[in-house]
Design brief:
The complex is a heterodimer of chains A (503) and B (134).
Chain A: H1 5-23, H2 26-53, E1 58-61, E2 72-75, H3 77-104, H4 110-129, H5 133-151, H6 158-188, H7 193-200, E3 203-206, E4 209-212, H8 217-234, H9 243-249, H10 252-278, H11 280-286, H12 289-309, H13 314-335, H14 338-369, H15 380-383, H16 385-399, H17 405-420, H18 423-449, H19 464-482, H20 487-501
Antiparallel strand pairs in A: 1-2, 3-4
Chain B: H1 3-9, H2 12-30, H3 34-56, H4 69-78, H5 88-119, H6 124-133
Helix pairs in contact in B: 2-3, 3-5
The chains are: A mainly alpha (503), B mainly alpha (134).
């Protein structure tokens, strides 16, 4: 059992997805999906525990075919942390689903929702677990295709156009990644990540000259395709255009789940390629990848935070804020130092909890108010005190107030900046946090300091079935703001592994 | 033939790939009709399939199927050599990518049907106009 955990984690949701389709019955399908999600979470926790105690991480060879010929699954600390994060958020968000989708998705489509949700989970987990490049592409497409379908379930017809836009941009991104994998395969003849990293360093004879594979033009082009493709998927400014609409019009549960996991998995892909496959030396010293990434990250943080201030749709506002937060993660990665990477990875973890919780709180508001327009939120802080309290706690996390998880990640990012002595960037980071204060405050002002509209009957607090999952995620945001052994401990370990794997 | 001519003509398969890729990419960006966009997207993906397939192909290479005993009998008689195989793995990978491509197209077309039901049009600018009025 224990040695087969990496594959069980993938197989369980993958097999349960078509079962949900066959059940065709709302309660049975949702119950099965819930059971699968929570057991996946348990397995992921177990796997992380084993992975952290195994030097070099766990490897699993599919069908007993030895790498590099067979497909290899590889779980190190970073992958383990991602698995825990994704399956945990998936389990909590799905617990939120049964009540939330009652209004938002026609009852006849609930079993389809469960199927797509499990497939999306399979794809996301698969990306983190696999050590094979082509396998990664397939899992990426599994998660993306089901994500498009999930988004199109939204009530408004705009959900359809948003899903279509995401499909076009997502497919271009995934195809770019496919081109890059093809070019790399052309030069090395392997698809295994560890083997590829090894072979990229070898020398070959090319037109009567001896060159390192790294320095061939083919690999440079592959790197370019890869960074653009992944940037589309992780919604790095200016390739974020698909994200705001997709998040704004998807059903609440779907937004909560995807906002917390999909872009994070793409950040994970970036880490894997840049550090494990290409290596620090190539990405940051031969190529000026750090400068480019840092510039885009900083512009993205400011552009997206400013746009967020002017949104009247709160879900859209949070979506733009997500684009800004991806900028912080990219910023952490661009330092390529232990503190910077730790900050980037911890922010990936913390932001998933914060945004997941905030979007679930939005789901509670939608459940009672049926709207996420700022003007409809007047006085909602008095009518739905618990929901709004959760939302505000999440907002404080976004700003980076001490005691919340957001503070921890910004602390590591700032110390990484100061370590290099780039204090102007530290000032910029603090300024950008002020932008977050502005957009969070706009909502707080409307929700707490304006009179609620006279409705009959008055708006009530959201039901417990919705409040408990929301509270779990927001509570985790506070827990990981005080107790950092798991998040920072594992992230620091992961950062050291990434930097050490390719000195 | 000069070295430059060789790089231009000898790599004609890659030129075809780049031409198809750019055509597809242009159609996705420039066309307002959603179905045409998907056709462009297909073209874009197919160019990548050709990229993979042509990298596995060897001039005169055959399908990599292990020959049966009669072949070896012939081999001894006619002093011919073992056949040269084309690399099978890129073709296998592309089989998977084709399936992914079909799934993407099917989902996109299904979305277009739903968009047509909801908006009564599949022209991007008209959809945008309706969204702004609403």
């Amino acid at each position: 059992m224990q040695q087969h955990l990496p594959i069980l984690l993938i197989i369980t949701p993958l097999v349960a997805a078509p079962l949900c389709l066959l059940l065709r019955q709302r309660i049975a399908a949702l119950a099965l999906a819930l059971a699968v999600c929570w057991s996946t979470f348990a397995m992921a926790l177990w796997l992380l525990e084993i992975a952290r105690n195994t030097p070099g991480g766990i490897t699993y060879q599919l069908g007993g075919w030895a790498a590099p010929w067979g497909i290899e699954y590889h779980v190190d600390t970073l992958a383990g942390l991602m698995l825990v994060l994704i399956s945990g958020i998936a389990a909590i968000a799905l617990s939120f689903a049964p009540r939330s989708i009652q209004d938002e998705i026609p009852a006849g489509q609930h079993y389809l929702f469960a199927t797509e949700y499990l497939l999306c989970l399979t794809g996301l987990l698969g990306i983190c677990v696999t050590g094979d490049l082509f396998n990664l592409f397939v899992f990426l497409e599994i998660s993306s295709l089901s994500a498009y379908a999930l988004i199109s379930l939204g009530r408004s017809r705009r959900a359809l156009t948003a899903a279509f836009q995401y499909l076009v941009m997502g497919t271009i991104g995934a195809t770019f990644i496919l081109i890059a994998i093809g070019l790399m395969y052309m030069m090395t003849g392997t698809l295994n990540m560890a083997d590829m990293a090894e072979r990229l360093k070898r020398t070959i004879e090319l037109r009567e000259q001896t060159v390192v594979v790294h320095q061939t033009r083919t690999i440079l082009v592959a790197f370019a395709f890869l960074s653009v493709g992944i940037s589309i998927k992780m919604a790095l400014f200016p390739l974020h255009l698909w994200l705001p609409n997709a998040y704004a019009y998807a059903p609440s549960v779907v937004t909560g789940f995807l906002a917390a996991t999909a872009t994070k998995v793409s950040v994970y892909m970036l880490l894997r390629f840049v550090f494990t496959v290409f290596g620090v030396q190539f990405s940051f010293q031969t190529l000026p990848f750090d400068v480019g990434l840092m510039a885009l990250a900083l512009i993205g943080i400011f552009a997206a935070s400013t746009t967020a201030i002017f949104q009247t749709n709160i879900k859209r506002m949070l979506a733009y804020s997500s684009v800004a937060q991806v900028g912080y993660m990219a910023l952490g990665i661009s330092f390529a130092s232990e503190n910077g990477l730790t900050g980037g990875i911890v922010h990936m973890f913390n932001h998933a909890l914060i945004k997941g919780g905030m979007f679930l709180a939005m789901g509670c508001l939608v459940f009672r108010l049926g709207s996420v327009e700022l003007t409809d939120l007047r006085g909602v802080g008095r009518r739905m005190p618990l929901t709004m309290f959760a939302w505000v706690l999440g907002g404080l996390g976004l700003i980076g107030v001490p005691v919340t998880a957001g503070f921890i990640s910004k602390w590591y990012l700032i110390s990484a900046v100061l370590e290099r002595g780039w204090w102007p960037i530290a000032v910029l980071m603090l300024l950008s946090s002020l932008l977050a204060v502005i957009y969070i405050w706009r909502v707080v002002e409307v929700a707490y300091f304006q009179e609620p509209p006279e409705t009959d009957p008055p708006v009530q607090e959201a039901p417990l079935a919705l409040l408990i999952p929301t509270g779990l995620l927001i509570g985790a945001n506070i827990v990981f703001g005080l107790w950092t052994t798991l998040s920072v401990g594992a992230a620091g370990e992961a950062a050291r592994q990434l930097l050490g794997a390719s000195p | 033939m000069s070295h430059e001519m060789n790089t231009v003509l000898g790599l004609y398969n890659y030129w075809i790939v780049i031409f198809l890729m750019m055509t597809g990419f242009y159609v996705v960006i420039a066309k307002g009709n959603l179905v045409k966009k998907i056709i462009g997207l297909n073209l874009f993906q197919i160019s990548v399939f050709l990229l993979y397939l042509s990298m596995g192909k060897i001039n005169g290479g055959t399908t990599p199927i292990y020959p049966d005993k009669s072949f070896f009998a012939d081999l001894q008689d006619q002093s011919s050599t073992m056949p040269v195989y084309s690399h099978p793995l890129p073709s296998v990978l592309i089989l998977t990518a084709i399936v992914v491509g079909i799934a993407t197209t099917a989902l996109a077309l299904a979305l277009i049907v739903r968009i047509h039901e909801a908006y009564g049009t599949i022209e991007e600018d008209e959809i945008l106009l309706q969204d702004q009025e609403a």
